[in-house]
């Protein structure tokens, strides 16, 4: 697991609603990225569940999560 993944996961493990809202205000996410963000970080759904729900492959979800993390890292 990369240091970015660990840092973002650690942030969300201890974040409260105000912290999460602050991050979401500072980044620009597409509609799909916003849905993935909510499902993965807030609802704690796994990649396969998200992929099935959005009718895409797990690889697409993984790539989108990486893009989301790339946007989050400068803020946290």
Layout of helices and strands:
Elements (H helix, E strand, L loop, with lengths): L2 H12 L2 H10 L4 H12 L4 H8 L3 H15 L4
Helix pairs in contact: 4-5
Classification by helices and strands:
mainly alpha
Outline, from the CA principal axes? globular
Number of helices: 5
What is the arithmetic mean of pLDDT? Answer: 94
The biggest beta sheet reads: none
Total strands: 0
What is Rg? 12 Å
| H and E order | HHHHH
Residue runs with pLDDT of under 50 for 5 or more positions: none
Strand content: under 5%
In helices, the fraction of residues equals over 70%
Number of domains: 1
Descriptive overview:
- This protein is mainly alpha-helical and 76 residues long.
- The chain has one domain.
- It is 75% helix and 0% strand.
- It has five helices and no strands.
- Helix 4 crosses helix 5.
- It is globular, with a radius of gyration of 12 Å.
- The relative contact order is 0.17.
- The mean pLDDT is 94.
